[in-house]
Amino acid sequence: MAQQQATSKIFLWIVAVGFFMQTLDSTIVNTALPAMARSLGESPLSMQAVVISYSLTMAMLIPASGWVADRFGTRQVFMAAIILFVIGSVACAMSRTLTELVIARIVQGAGGAMLLPVGRLAVLRTVSRAEFLPAMSFVAVPGLIGPLIGPTLGGWLVQVASWHWIFLINVPVGIIGCVLTYFHLPDSRSTSLARFDMVGYLMLSLGMVALSFSLDGLAGLGMEHATVLLLLVFSMALIIAYGLHAQRRPDPLFPLYLFKIHTYSVGLLGNLFARIGSGAMPFLIPLLLQVNLGYSPIQAGLMMLPVAAAGMMAKRITTPLIQREGYRRVLVGNTLILGVLIASFALVSPEQPLWIRLIQLALFGAVNSLQFTAMNTITLRDLDSDGAGSGNSLFSMVQMLAMSLGVTIAGALLTTFIGLLDHDDPTKTLPAFHATFFCIGLITCASAWIFWQLAPDIRGGKTHDDPADVS
């Protein structure tokens, strides 16, 4: 019995460390982008592809992760994911151009996309129902710590060593993880494997990529207007085509009946648009601090700690607040406050006292955390057991897509405003940052209308932790 408990604990540690690696690399690069740009001979304001390529790849591959694990077994797939993640990390560290770095991040994202869903599936199939909630809580903690320490750790590594080490630190962790996975991770797979909806998967994946490229086309990629318009129409056509495809297929990738669940459809759309602002901020703030305000990488990383700390503290009040006020009132009001707080960064200046900046960051962290927790809960609360798997997979995909779109839109707006203001010197782009924060704030405020569609009497529900709460 003691040996079985020890093996179970090691198994949970394996899944937790995999979760930690994946969430850490979602945020650790943000404070290192200016240093990467100098090393690669690029402008620090044109490095958004490093972040977008990782999160967009994860969004594309998450829907296939469950089927792949059922087909090849959780142990093999989880070990392959770690190996792919480590290979991508080494390739990132060895990159000599921005193109090489983006390709390496795609490889890294392909491994990261499998770590959390396959690890969660392994826990679900191995742990008893009585032990499932404590087990998942244990696994979730490292995932919350990753974004908490990511920006500060990234800034510290850049300052004491070089940006290459933010990727190389994954190598020893990955090697140990592979060895432990081989000996301790149960190898479970489905006995009745359904046929994978490859056509639907390709429609959604290509649609997401085309949409991201169209949004970044004019500013980041330098595409012609006609090419951008073509990509945008192509992405919309693919998404609509998937809807028609899913109506005809008996076992679609994501069944359309999920959207008949009102709280799920509202929560999913709300997550997609409200997370654009939240996804843009971890990219914009470290850039602003280093490029325009003269912060060092470690100082910029430390400035993100109030965001994380306030976000963790805000979790205590979220459930009582929702039970008292209801989801609609909380989400509509909080979304508007979040949008105003994002827009308030348009007032940042070199003359601003440090204590005001710290309060501003802490308030953003608290409101952002409350927003994520409320959105997660309303989205998943009414899913039944039949729709839990595909519904949660679609929700995870939308979360990663929104993070990618947030950075894409922020980068496109920043590049556009820099061009309008005709500033070649990155250190004189503070007005462009101000305009970008203001526009991102407006987008966030506008998404409050989606949450207004909720019934006013919906209350309660279990809180769902999200590692992005503290990013």
Automatic annotation (TrEMBL):
The protein's UniProt keywords, in alphabetical order, are: Cell membrane, Membrane, Transmembrane, Transmembrane helix, Transport
Membrane topology of this protein: Multi-pass membrane protein
Upper lineage is:
Bacteria, Pseudomonadati, Pseudomonadota, Alphaproteobacteria, Hyphomicrobiales
Residue ranges of the Major facilitator superfamily (MFS) profile domain? 11-459
Q: Does the keyword Transmembrane helix apply?
A: yes
SUPFAM superfamilies in the cross-refs: MFS general substrate transporter (SSF103473)
Question: Can you provide one Gene Ontology molecular function annotated for this UniProt record?
Answer: transmembrane transporter activity
Native species? Phreatobacter stygius
Recorded GO CC terms:
plasma membrane
State the protein's name. DHA2 family efflux MFS transporter permease subunit
- The main location class comes to membrane
Record Pfam families: MFS_1 (PF07690)
**Would I find Magnesium among this entry's keywords?**
no
- Parts of the chain that traverse the membrane: 12-33, 45-65, 77-96, 102-123, 135-157, 163-184, 196-215, 227-245, 266-289, 295-314, 326-348, 354-373, 394-420, 432-452
Cell compartment(s), UniProt:
Cell membrane
